[in-house]
Amino acid sequence: MEEQSVVLVVDDVKTNVLIMRQCLKEMFQVWTADSGEECLRVAKQKPDIILLDVLMPGMDGYQVCRQLKADPETAEIPIIFVTAKDSDDDEQKGLEIGAVDYITKPIRPAIVRARVSTHIQLKQHSDKLKFMALHDQLTGLYNRHFLAERAAQSLSAMVRHQQELSIVMLDLDHFKKINDFNGHHIGDLVLQAVAKLLQDCFRKEDVVARMGGEEFVILMECGLDIAREKTEDVRQQLARLNPMGLEVTGSFGVVTANPQNAELSHLLVLADEAVYKAKADGRNCVVC
Ligand code: GH3
Ligand code: MG
Ligand code: MG
Ligand code: MG
């Protein structure tokens, strides 16, 4: 696991970089940068951790750390200061601006390796927990927690910038029969195949979520006409999919948000009503 982990070493003194590389190369892939400015560029390539010198010409390590933390692309990368500045005040400052650890020079190689390894593992665990908290385990789609978070952001953006936002709800037709006739395991495989179809059909910016059971919700940043057209296309693709050799269709409800109904819970009630109507209209159809 750690063999693939990438450590970015940032230090303006070549000898220090060499010492660090020597210390880390057996366990990690080592990237280097010799200035704060270069560190900011290389950090965009997402190293697993950054070992950051403080005293450097140009930007110092504290400035670099603040910039990395302010940029959403790099904010989550753990940073360890490695520095000759050994006062309590310096260490406190380094930790307060967001570093996970603070190591003073001259370094003790075995301790640097152990600390780097621990922080990489902690980050991997927290990434995994975050993923599990926001995704559905069976299909890998987003779950309703993520949908709620993203919907809140999109709805406030809609109100502020007059953006459009539509919600598609899909409930598979007679899914209970699919389970009853083929077994729950086949039902699960069908749900996975439908999830993959949805992920392939909608754009990366759209949020495709499994709400639970055989119900899915998609958040689209577009108005009703485009959402309806797209949903009709997806309905047809689903009807042709034949996952596990079975005929599977879905009933779809599409609603569009406006500043007067900018609440996810209200939009979901409306979408659910549209789905209910699609069921009443004979299923395998889209109701707006
Ligand atoms: P309708 O067309 O009216 O929606 O009929 P339906 O049978 O799809 O509706 P209903 O809500 O009564 O049944 C949904 C079924 O989905 C019931 C349940 O057994 C099944 N289901 C829910 N979650 C899962 C799951 O995770 N895996 C599998 N295999 N089945 C599930
Ligand atoms: Mg230096
Ligand atoms: Mg249902
Ligand atoms: Mg159903």
Describe what this molecule looks like in 3D:
Residues 163-288 form the GGDEF domain. Keywords: Phosphoprotein. Its EC number is 2.7.7.65. Pfam families: GGDEF, Response_reg. It is elongated and about 75 Å long. The protein has helices at 14-24, 36-43, 61-70, 88-96, 109-134, 144-161, 175-182, 184-201, 224-241, 264-280; strands at residues 6-10, 29-33, 49-52, 79-83, 101-104, 166-172, 207-212, 215-220, 250-256, 286-287. With 288 residues, the protein is α/β, with parallel strands linked by helices. Strands 2-1-3-4-5 form a five-stranded parallel sheet, sandwiched between helices. One magnesium ion is lined by residues 11-13, 53, 55-56.
Name its key features:
288 residues, alpha/beta, 5-stranded parallel sheet, 5-stranded mixed sheet, 10 strands, 18% strand, elongated, binds 3'-deoxy-guanosine-5'-triphosphate, binds magnesium ion
